[in-house]
Amino acid sequence: MAEEKLMDETKTVLSEQRARSASYYWGNGLYTDFEKAYGKYLFVPFDLPIIAPNDKDKFVKFYFEKSTNATKVKTDLLSLQFDGSDYSPYRTITSVSRGGHSDVWSANQVPEIYTEFPEIFEQIHEYMPFIEEKDFRWSMWSSNWDVPAHRDYGSQIDAPVGIRIKLFDNNPEETLYMKVDPLEWETDNFDVTYTLPIPKDTNSFAWNNLRQKHASRYNKGGYRKILMIVSARELGRCITGKNLNKYVDLLDRSVAKYQKETVVDQWTNFTDYLTIKESDPINMVLDQR
């Protein structure tokens, strides 16, 4: 296998990615009040009912019959070996909307999932009203083996906006874990790693992709997980104007309910990840409520 040429993971690169995302979402690249208020939340379980197909066995069978191995189509921040053909860390099904879910990974559009399991999408729209469009971008993933710690490409907003929904999991324990990863620190002994503390009464949550890397362990012996990912670009497009306040309401309610499970950053600040000019004003994007 040939080693892929990776993007440098530096404050400059993450700052540029974040500025592009913020400009796309909010019309400018300034550090926002939303990030100032919620960047400290590394992991937030959502105060929402469990989102699930009506017939879980039918769904799992459908998924593994229709999913295909994803391959990389664009360089990103994931430090893995791959030659573009036989390497695949995931099996996937992707949305059919606007070219699929990801700029980095290959798509596998399966339109019949919308008619076979409409209840999944109906629940998402009901419980997450900030996602208004029916054809929002998403992907479903199931790991083929261990996935090393990495940040997702192009999702560097300093807030818990990396939304996941665990649609199926028969592992004996949680396999997703996070590593707080500040950049350009002088000390080498900093290590904060934790397994996601997902409560039993919800299966949806969000994490801060800027301040952390996420990874997963793969258990052999017939253990499977199907994780649904709401596209970070899609979420950014959704949570503008009044919809941002809908998302903030969910975050506030969730943090209040899951005080023990919510992970708050006690170790780093946004300046450990981003280069923000001191002359840049903080931009207010939250509507007055």
Mean pLDDT: 85
Q: What share of the residues lie within helices?
A: 10-25%
| SSE ordering | HHEHEEHHEEEEEEEEHHE
Q: List how many beta strands DSSP finds.
A: 12
User: How does the overall form come out from the CA principal axes?
Assistant: globular
Strand order of the largest sheet: 2-3-4-11-6-9-1-12
User: What Rg is obtained from the alpha carbons, in whole angstroms?
Assistant: 18 Å
Percent strand: 15-25%
How many strands, what sense, and barrel or not for the largest sheet?
A: 8 strands, antiparallel
The structural domain count equals 1
Question: Span between N and C termini?
Answer: 55 Å
Structural class, by secondary structure, is: alpha+beta
Helical segment count: 7
Low-confidence stretches: 1-5, 77-85, 278-289
